[in-house]
Specification:
The protein is α/β, with parallel strands linked by helices and 351 residues long. The chain has 15 helices and 8 strands. Helix 12 runs antiparallel to helix 13.
């Protein structure tokens, strides 16, 4: 089965740049796709200094949905948004004041990868952090998802007015250009041996995936085999068990509600997916979660996305008012999201 590789290198234009992230892409692009992926054949997607978080999300979502192994090579810099103090990957237009709207929230990466089976996804990271983010990450590790292997480093900010080099990722590319891809934990050690003292101040990342008996694996296998009803039935049992054990508004139960919403999307049922995401958002808000909490924003954004995919005008009209009501409370990060819902709803009502 072919693999998928996503090469993402991003850093701000101008004086906010901590690392020359895009300089690593020519070196990585010179490595044969099969070596980057560790499979016989591979599709490679390259994103060099992208401008818009939503554009990156679209590419990431497509890569996460592809069957077979997925490897993400991510080079760039991390900042915290001022409102929620959550790590974001800076993009070309990011400034300290606009992180929330112009950078890629790191939890988007984790969310898009969460339904992939354990062992199928690897992240290779060469990240620099600004001082505020560096201090936070010393006590709160960067969460890249429990089912994913992660190798790389996070470096502190360089000296004032200096732009750092992505030396870890360049060393990765150099090793891989030999034409052989060792197991990634071994590759990580080879890179450390090459770069040595240069990475002495960095946080080194080398984590493996959790248990292959995870229920997400069985669900993912059913989805990839086209057995969508079986996948949903399995997830529904876990959702019911979590609700009984911890309550329907518990994170465990909501997690499985979100899995079922994703499964409806994979099954090509945007009505069921939209309704499920609306319910998740309403439950989270009803439990007292703030309107700008990442999980609340994500639920409303996904409900909005699935609503836009509904072809049956009557079903779209049925769900539109609930979405509009939620959008009033949860405007999200995309400008004009509420206007879009209201305008589309007017079109549906006159059609």
């Amino acid at each position: 089965m072919p693999g998928t590789v996503l090469l993402l290198a991003a850093s701000p234009n101008g004086k906010g740049r901590l690392v020359d992230a895009a300089s690593v892409l020519p070196v990585l692009a010179a490595v044969p796709p099969a070596i980057l992926s560790g499979t016989d054949t591979a599709n490679v997607v390259e994103l060099a200094d992208p401008l818009e978080p939503q554009a990156v999300l679209t590419r990431l979502r497509a890569a996460a949905a592809a069957p077979g192994p997925l490897t993400l090579f991510v080079t760039g810099q991390l900042h915290l948004d001022r409102k929620q103090r959550l790590p974001h990957l800076a993009l070309a237009r990011t400034t300290p004041a606009t992180v929330r709207y112009t950078a890629l929230p790191w939890h988007w990466i984790r969310e898009e990868l969460r339904l992939r089976p354990a062992g199928a996804t690897t992240l290779v990271l060469d990240l620099h952090a600004d001082q505020e983010t560096w201090e936070l990450l010393r006590t709160v590790p960067l969460d890249s998802g429990r089912n994913n292997a992660v190798h790389g480093r996070i470096a502190p900010p360089p000296a004032r007015r200096e732009v750092a080099a992505p030396s870890y990722m360049k060393a990765v590319a150099t090793v891989l250009r030999s034409g052989h891809r060792p197991p990634l934990a071994q590759l990580h050690q080879q890179v450390l041996a090459r770069t040595g003292a240069e990475l002495a101040s960095s946080m080194l990342l080398s984590t493996h995936t959790g248990d292959g008996g995870d229920p997400h694996d069985a669900i993912s296998t059913a989805v990839r085999g086209g057995r969508h009803a079986e996948a949903d039935e399995f997830a529904a049992r876990w959702e019911e068990a979590a609700a009984r054990a911890h309550g329907p508004a518990s994170e465990d139960a909501l997690h499985w509600s979100e899995v079922r919403a994703d499964l409806a999307m994979f099954a090509g049922d945007p009505v069921r997916s939209c309704r499920a995401w609306l319910t998740v958002a309403q439950v989270r808000l009803g439990a007292g979660q703030p309107a700008d909490a990442p999980q609340v924003e994500a639920a409303v954004d996904r409900a909005h996305h699935q609503w836009g995919a509904i072809k049956d005008a009557a079903r779209a009209r049925e769900l539109g008012p609930a979405l509009a009501e939620l959008r009033l409370r949860v405007p999200g990060r995309r400008e004009g999201a509420l206007d879009h819902v209201q305008q589309h709803l007017r079109q549906l009502q006159t059609s």
